[in-house]
Design a protein that fits this description.
By secondary structure, this protein is α+β, with helices and mostly antiparallel strands. The protein has 6 helices and 7 strands, in the order βααααβββαβαββ. Helix 1 packs across helix 4. The longest helix is centred in the middle third of the chain and has 12 residues. Helix content is 32%, strand content 34%.
């Protein structure tokens, strides 16, 4: 059973290693490893754990995924949703996103950026209520989309 828990600073190395494996396919499709998730080091992950919302997905004691929520003005930026490749396709990314959204339900909106080269990326977020707000060329090959979602409000 997968449990979502806050990350601790000592989790940064494992989170970073999973992130490197999770974004390797995006790098392959993009033809470059010069994409932000792969350019980040362990110290940057640890900094985010200390200063932002960083959640982990755990299978027992083993971390198998993570996601970050960074408050910027009225928005919560969803960053670095990473799931161990052998665990992908099991709903873990969705659970992580839902948990970040629940923790920041009072923001005006959620925002994220994703690479259109990775099959199913845009659709994954659209199924969670995100809509494309902008498309932009990152390079000759890479097209990024900015997406956003308004939080669910209960009366």
């Amino acid at each position: 059973m997968i449990v979502i828990l806050p990350a601790a600073p000592h989790d940064a190395e494992v989170i970073h290693a999973i992130q490197m494996r999770a974004f390797a396919e995006e790098a392959r499709l993009s033809g470059t490893e010069q994409i932000p998730p792969l350019m980040e080091d362990v110290a940057a992950v640890e900094h985010d754990v200390r200063t932002h919302t960083v959640l982990t997905a755990r299978d027992g004691d083993q971390i198998v995924g993570s996601a970050r929520g960074v408050i910027k003005g009225a928005a919560c930026l969803i960053h670095r949703v990473s799931v161990e490749p052998t665990y992908q396709g099991k709903g873990i990314g969705a659970k992580l996103i839902d948990a970040v959204e629940q923790l920041h339900a009072t923001v005006e909106r959620f925002e994220l950026t994703t690479n259109t080269l990775v099959p199913g990326n845009v659709e994954f977020y659209e199924r969670r209520g995100y809509t494309v707000t902008q498309r932009r060329n990152f390079s000759d090959k890479i097209v990024l989309v900015d997406m956003q979602k308004m939080p669910a409000r209960t009366l």
